Amino acid sequence: MDADIKITLQYYNKTHRELLSNYPSFKTIDQLVTTGCDIPFAEFFTYYLFYKKRPNLSGYDSYESISRKIDLAHKELDGFILLNNKSIVANPVALPLNNAMTERIGEGIGLSVVNKIHGLTGADWRKIPEQNKFKTLDYEIASDGNNIIQIETKGNCSNDNTEKNSSISSHKKSIEEKKKQVRSKSQQTPLMYGTIAAVSSNSHPIRCWILDPEPTPYDRSPQETKLLNRLSYLSAWTSYISPRSNLSATLLNRTNLIDNAKDPFEFDNIPLLNSHREPFNQYRIGGKYNIDTFFLGKSYVINHNYTGIVRFSGINCFVFIGISEDVVKYAVYQKYEEILHFQKEAFSSTVEIICSIPKWHWTELSNDLKRKISSIETRNAIQFKLMFRIYQSKSGLAIGFCDKRSL
């Protein structure tokens, strides 16, 4: 799906509209409520696939486990969710959708809506730190550079989403209960959004109700929050794509140093150094930019600036997970102006990928599948070309799929 997803955005009720009218973003919210909200499918899809991904979380700690989870999430949509009138609806014969699917949909839609309001990307969100005295949120905290932003998302599915059912009322109550437990003590009160996204089995577009619950205390400034969230995002994904690289380790150390610094901006324009205390050098191998050896031996998209890993999910699909090389360079040079403001175009496209997988992973493929692939053997890997459908998010992350049945 290349087109945007149409969403009917509504205030939960008059009370919440009045509360949200005090937000500096109210004019944008009100315009989206009036005219409708369109979000890129690729952005929603990446949120759906990486639902509640957390560092060191069981099941997200290896290439193979995360590839399986992504492929399973990808297949969940097939047959259960249909495209209708430029939005997505539930397949009537597949009802009821399980809770995991509605939660994924709720999170993907809620985050995409708030991104639209504040011009954010997936790189801007980070899980709210646990605080023993307060009931923490189900998701994360972000910053647009001027405001601290928090969100809690809920999802629902029904035959008709034009009316609030008992489940939606329960979600609203759950979000509002935090008002009884949370009192903001930060110098700048965060903007807190609650969203309840409902997909229906009729022809109505996805409906998303927006609320104004109480924010969780947070003492970082908006600029610090945005910087730290983006650095954490870059560190997490470079570590995932190349966990043993010098660059990943160096970026993680720098991010931890900045996170604990009194003034994070004192490290602005101080580039990362390799293990020899020298700048990471750029050079080309096979027509691709390489920063030190970070991208060396990785899979990459032909004629696109994305490099990453390819794994067979163990089901029916090859999965590509990559990151924009431009974004990695921002992390290396540590120019905060670039880090704070990068935003890629969200899109989906069919592309050719030069796949490079370890020999041990190649041996795990069935002989029948290997016979269908024209491959060459290098010193440490097996290389081959495949066509993938990729989805690029605004944060610079790309996910792609190649069904083995299409080979």
Description:
The protein is an alpha+beta fold and 407 residues long. It has two domains: 4-219, no CATH class; 224-406, no CATH class. 32% of the residues lie in helices and 28% in strands. It is built from twelve helices and 18 strands. The strands form four sheets. A seven-stranded mixed β-sheet has the order 2-1-9-8-7-6-5, with helices on both faces. β16 (375-377) and β17 form a beta hairpin. The longest helix is centred in the N-terminal third of the chain and has 20 residues, at 99-118. The chain starts with a strand and ends with a strand. The model is unreliable at 131-137 and 182-187 (pLDDT under 50).
Condensed summary:
With 407 residues, the chain is an alpha+beta fold. Helix content is 32%, strand content 28%.
Main attributes of the structure:
18 strands; alpha+beta; 407 residues; 7-stranded mixed β-sheet
**Global geometry:** flat
- As a whole number of angstroms, the C-alpha radius of gyration is 22 Å
Number of helices: 12
Low-confidence stretches: 131-137, 182-187
Share in helix: 25-40%
